[in-house]
Amino acid sequence: MRTLVFYPMLLALQLSAAAPAGQPVATLAITVERVSRNGGNIRVGMYDSTSWVNHEVEPVAGAVVTAISPRTVIVLHDLKPGTYGVKLFQDYNRNGEFDFTWIGLPAEKYGFSRDPIVFFHEPDFEATKFALRPGENTIAVHLR
Asked: Which end of the chain, C or N, has fewer beta carbons within 10 A?
């Protein structure tokens, strides 16, 4: 089973990926729906097509914020416009890892941009990709 991989140290320190000087910049507001009352953090990573499939590569941008039920909004600033996918999860125990049950099922809520159906592994980039345009952008992700 392929697992969701997040880089907690990077995400804790990096709230956005700065666009090069003189380039148009974008802001992304991610509304995370169905946040559990179990608390913890929401950990989000934004990836391009290359970093999505390579779990050794850090996300393009990310954040770690306190989970607020039933909805948490995360805003990433100064992003380079392009095509990206978002993956996130609610880290109930704040251990920086996406936890599984003893039988290999997710123990924490998770979600992806465009809310694709998930069967035993994270979806392909194509199922999650969206265009990040200069200026303000918004997406919603529903936790499962």
From this structure: N
Q: Identify the burial level of 86 via C-beta atoms within 10 angstroms of its C-beta, where 0-12 means exposed, 13-18 middle and 19 or more buried.
A: buried
Q: What is the pLDDT of residues 92-101, one digit of tens each?
A: 999 999 999 9
Residue pair 106/98 in contact by the 8 Å Cβ criterion: yes
**DSSP-assigned letter for residue 9:** H
What does pTM read for this prediction? 0.85
Enclosing domain of residue 123: 8-142
Q: Of the candidates 66, 30, 26, 34, which has an alpha carbon nearest to the alpha carbon of residue 45?
A: 30
* Distance in angstroms (rounded) separating the CA atoms of residues 103 and 105: 6
75 within domain boundaries: yes
Phi then psi for residue 49, to 5 deg, are: -65, -35
Rg (CA), the chain: 14
